Structure formats: C-alpha cells, structure tokens
Amino acid sequence: MFVLILGLALWVLAHFFKRLAPERRAALGDKGKGLVALVLAVSVVLMVLGYRAAPVIPVYAPFPGAGHLNNLLMVVAVLLFGAGSPGSWLSTRMRHPMLISVKVWAIAHLLVNGDLASLILFGGLLAWAVGEVILINRNAPAWQRDPDSKPGPRDARLVAVWAVMFVVIAGVHIWLGHNPFMGTY
Q: What does pTM read for this prediction?
C-alpha cells in the first residue's frame, strides 16, 4: 500500500503546490509546468501500480445494484469533466466542473469498492478534490456565471467526445479485467 499512498501524496502535493506556494511556482516558470506534469504522471503510475498490487482487505460490502448506480454516476462524471473545457456552455454555468467530476467519480467508485485500497485511493482523491475547491475559492473567491452564454456547436462536439471517452474508459476497465456492465453487483 506504500506505493499507492506515495502516488496519492505526490498527486496532492503537485496540485496543491500552485495554490499553497504560488510565488515559488511562478518563479519556476515553464520549467515548473514540466516538472509538475512529470510528478503528476509519476503519481498516476504509482497509484495504478499500488492499487493493483494492494491486498484486498474488505471494509464494507457494496449494496446490491450499486454497480448500476456507479455506471450512471460515471456518465455524469465524464460529461462534467469534458464540460470543464474552456468555452463550453456548462463551464460558464458552474464553477469547478472538473473537480465536481472527480468528486462524482470518486463517490461512484466508493459505492462499488469496499476494500481498504479503494478507500485510500478513491477517498483520498475525493478529499483532494474537496480541498482543491476550498483552496481555489479562498484564493479567487469572485466568480460569476456568464448570463449571455448559450449552448452551441462546441457543446455538440463535447457530447461526441464525451461518448467516445466513456467507451474508452469502459474499454480500459474491461481490458484490465473488470467489465463494469456485467452482473448486478
């Protein structure tokens, strides 16, 4: 579990660095962006490897049918994540759609995974997303919706990209040995 926790810690620290030490981050310039991107890539690899290697230590049993709720929430999470792209209509209507997406994703996965490694990974990323929103709102409290924004062609492309991404994500899960559409788990 050490590798999983290390990956999660690197993820959180790399993201919080910009919020907690903005002067130091700005002083690094473009090199800093590359360094943060590298740390984030390493953190994702460590989280995946650590999660897959972690022993299954049951903590709670998911309720029957939780898999279907998970799949529904994942549809919402993927759409919200895509909606966070600049220029989308939804991004002008809600603050932090990508971080809300991470929260929905984490909750969806906590519904169907009741082992300790899942609690660490998904619970940790849920806690990070909550903390990130708090830090962003503290540093930049002013935000207003754009009352003049309307859905447009960019949003239609967003829905198409969302559908492809959902299929890709499901395909990766199946490739890794877990079909999220089988059974009534």
A: 0.84
